[in-house]
Amino acid sequence: LIYEGYGPAGSAVMLEVMTDNRNRTAADISHLFSKYGGNLGETGCVGWMFHKKAIFVVDKEAFDDEESLMMIALDAGAEDFNEEEDSYEVLTAPDDFSAVREEIEKSGAPIAEAQVAMIPQTYVDLTDEQALKDLQRTLDLLDEDDDVTDVWTNWNE
After folding, report:
1. pLDDT, tens only, 67-88
2. Closest by Cα among 118, 109, 57, 49 to 82
3. Are 61 and 112 in contact (CB under 8 A)?
4. pTM for the complete prediction?
5. Which candidate, 70, 72, 62, 76, places its Cα nearest to that of 111?
6. Mapping DSSP to helix (H, G, I), strand (E, B) and coil, where does residue 77 land?
7. For residue range 120-144, what is the model confidence (pLDDT) as tens digits?
8. Cβ-count burial 11-41 (b if 16+ within 10 Å, e if not)
């Protein structure tokens, strides 16, 4: 299941949940959101702010040929390639996950992380100290919940 809601200061939060009891989980998630000033929303309330993408992360120390990796990934169908401080990030459509992963692995680049995630289209900056603490507490509580498998937010950390 996917739950959507608003964290403190209007930040958008999406959750992926696996449960055997929808009623219990909905009540638990709603309680966790409201505990620190957020609220559980209706389906689609924040979903439009996110794109579902496959993400591959390759550690720079393990593979330092940026140009080669970029060409391999893009030729395999990747949509975007970003150089981060200590890694390379490859973004693609979820349908191309297997093809892109296979080509990256063939190149000898060890994949440090591979997942399908919800990527925010825009990010929010929280400047209020209390809102920052409340959002972090909310995210921590959601992350600790046994039914929650993934948490995404548009907070610009």
Report:
1. 999 999 999 999 999 998 899 9
2. 57
3. no
4. 0.80
5. 62
6. coil
7. 999 998 888 998 999 999 999 999 9
8. bbbbbbbebeeeeebbebbeebbeebbbebb
